[in-house]
Amino acid sequence: MALVVILGKVLNTEVIEHMKSGAEADIARQVDALVAAQVAELLKLHIPEELQVEVARQEEWLEEIQRDLRNSENRRANAMLRDGESAPLQPIYKMDGTVADKFPSTLKELFEMDVSTSQELMREYELSECSASRERNLNRLMQFFNVKYQLAGAVGS
Fold first, then answer.
1. Residue 105, CA distances (Å) to 31, 109, 131, 148, 150 in order
2. So what's the pLDDT on residue 155?
3. Which residue spans adopt a coiled-coil conformation according to this UniProt entry (predicted)?
């Protein structure tokens, strides 16, 4: 009987502590959100709108430069790929800063890509010269990714 009472007290204590820590975390999140909203509101009052617009423009420009730098570094790495089809392909970021969902992760995936996937990637990366020819599309994608391979078309195609 005493064991049941002790277990009950321990269980109650643990439940109370768990609920208390959960409530504290919720309160902290709500306070953070309120503080962020208040700071944003006060910044609007104290910083001229032209300056806010300029800061936003500069942030967009910086994001674009960072994306271009990542793409440049990844293209340089892709140019060095020589170790067979299992070599990892470095991703190229789209204008919106994301990587295409169907971006191939290896050279093998790139070489085995079908025509519809190659066309989809051409559109996502806004590349011109999209073709019905799988080989042409893959060669254009490899050029864009800076992969130093080229597919030869089938004889008669």
1. 42, 7, 23, 16, 18
2. 46
3. 55-82
pLDDT over threshold 90, residue 106: yes
**Hey, is 152 helix, strand or coil?**
coil
Distant-in-sequence, close-in-space partners of 44: CB < 8 Å, separation ≥ 6:
52
pLDDT score at 153: 62
For residues 60 and 77, the answer to whether their CB atoms sit within 8 Å is no
> Quick one: pLDDT band at residue 122, thresholds 50, 70, 90?
very high
**Distance of alpha carbon 147 from the chain centroid:** 21
Q: What is the dihedral of CA 92, 96, 102, 108, to 10 degrees?
A: 0
Q: Are 44 and 52 in contact (CB under 8 A)?
A: yes
